[in-house]
Design brief:
The chain contains 12 helices and 16 strands. By secondary structure, the chain is of the alpha+beta class.
């Protein structure tokens, strides 16, 4: 849908007090007045709260930096519809819980700069819901999160990652990284006091949800909030399994710390930080050198239990740079991962994206591997019943990484984006997603009404 048409749909037809049918167009003279269209369907349209047009207005995309057009999201089966309905309920003010978004990716996502931008933009519209997921691990020195502080006595921990720091038992957790220690005094913490003094979000939290592992040789640890022990946990159990501890506290700035006491091994996955009225939570699930095959190595039972606990409405998969092997290998691995996602999160919306453009420094030819992965991932998305967005084309296609490097949007390794590059591409993804949302709402103007049959999406159990 053209962006002007989307603005008209959101600002007029969907802003009415009763849900209406019909689709907005760029010119008001090409269709009956909004009052007439509203009256024409008033008898058969369910009454519902109006959508706040500011929340669903088109996203900002700076076209002056690169001139590549923004591809549309490919979703012929409307697989993203449950997510769109949840967002519409937020915009109507009838949602009962946060809308949660997870984004899996490789090393480009380990800095939380793409996801950090998406989080800031969406929470700027819907409200500060808290940072979301932070791993209590640091397998790579550059692993970090925006708008919170995250650290620990990492010398006391064994780092675990499905791609680079293997473990024998497959319990990597749903985010593919973890850490473990049996050393009394080992600590890992997350603070809502951001390093960036100008951070618009991240300053407060009222709920911390700790993910860890119970096991036959499990140890003990304390959970501390602002230096005070609020819970002592014994992680010993008859069988290895995912486990959780939730701490509710005041809505304020806090530091949550896990303090290992020993008496066995403590494996930590991470902590989810949330607060406030229903909004959007965006989780960064970046793992260095990640590919789909490695994700099949994760123990399915513990992954599914953790995914269910997080309760995602949309899962974005941004892989491909490190995916090697045959088409059959990629399809088999994707099926394992997608099946786990859907088993844990019935009806979850899934968006598969192509990888960013890369090149060998000093060469002049495109990276044939990346070019070949685009149609493969598009086909895999279709076979999986997922939506697809061409991130590679949104950069400008083959050799676009050269432009990104020249403009300071990517590093000189011709692989990793800089913060401005991450933010540019995050904006482009949001524009594509919000335009697709606008198209859906134009066809389904009652989306998000709590009195429609779509309320099943709103009633799905949430964490």
């Amino acid at each position: 849908m053209p962006r002007l048409a989307f603005a008209l749909v959101v600002g007029a037809a969907l802003g009415a007090a009763a849900c209406t049918e019909g689709r907005g167009t760029p010119s008001a003279t090409e269709q009956p007045p909004i009052e007439a269209r509203t009256a024409a369907v008033a008898e058969r349209a369910p009454a519902c709260a109006p959508i706040d047009p500011k929340k669903l207005a088109p996203m900002r995309c700076d076209a002056s930096v690169i001139d590549a057009p923004i591809p549309e999201i490919v979703d012929p089966t409307a697989s993203l519809a449950p997510f769109y309905r949840r967002v519409a309920a937020l915009a109507r003010g009838v949602a009962k819980d946060h809308v949660r978004v997870a984004m899996y990716g490789d090393s480009n996502l380990t800095t939380d700069e793409t996801t950090g931008r998406i989080r800031r933009e969406l929470q700027g519209r819907f409200g500060d819901a808290g940072h979301g997921w932070v791993a209590l691990a640091r397998p790579w020195p550059w692993y970090r999160h925006s708008d919170v502080r995250h650290d620990g006595s990492w010398r006391d921990f064994k780092q675990i990652a499905v791609s680079t720091h293997k473990t024998y038992d497959g319990h990597y957790g749903f985010a593919n990284i973890a850490s473990e220690s049996s050393s009394p005094g080992a600590v890992a913490f997350v603070s809502t006091n951001p390093r960036d003094a100008d951070a618009p979000i991240g300053w407060r939290a009222s709920r911390f949800d700790l993910f860890y592992m119970k096991r036959p040789d499990g140890g003990r640890f304390d959970v501390e909030v602002d230096g005070a022990v609020v819970r002592s946990v014994d992680a010993r159990a008859a069988e290895a399994a995912a486990a959780f501890e939730r701490v509710e506290t005041t809505d304020a700035g806090h530091e949550v710390k896990v303090h290992v006491r020993g008496h066995g091994t403590v494996r930590l996955f991470g902590v989810a930080i949330e607060r406030g009225s229903p909004s959007v939570v965006v989780d960064a699930l970046g793992t260095g050198a990640l590919n789909m095959e490695q994700m099949t190595l994760v123990n399915g039972a513990s992954r599914r239990a953790q995914l269910t606990r997080r309760g995602y409405d949309l899962v974005i998969i941004h892989l491909g740079t490190n995916m090697y092997g045959t088409d059959a290998d990629h399809r088999r691995a994707t099926k394992v991962v997608v099946d786990d996602l859907r088993a844990a999160l019935p009806g979850v919306a899934i968006l598969v994206m192509s990888p960013p453009d890369t090149m060998e420094p000093g060469t002049t030819h495109p990276d044939a591997h990346i070019v070949s992965m685009v149609p493969i991932l598009r086909a895999i998305a279709a076979e999986s019943g997922a939506a697809f967005w061409d991130f590679h084309a949104a950069m400008g296609g083959p050799k676009s990484i050269q432009t990104f490097v020249k403009k300071g949007l990517a590093w000189n390794d011709f692989i990793h984006l800089t913060k401005p590059g991450h933010e540019l591409m995050a904006d482009r993804l949001l524009c594509a997603l919000w335009d697709s949302l606008g198209t859906y709402l134009a066809k389904h103007p009652s989306a998000g009404c709590d009195s429609t049959d779509e309320s099943a999406d709103l009633a799905r159990p949430k964490p």
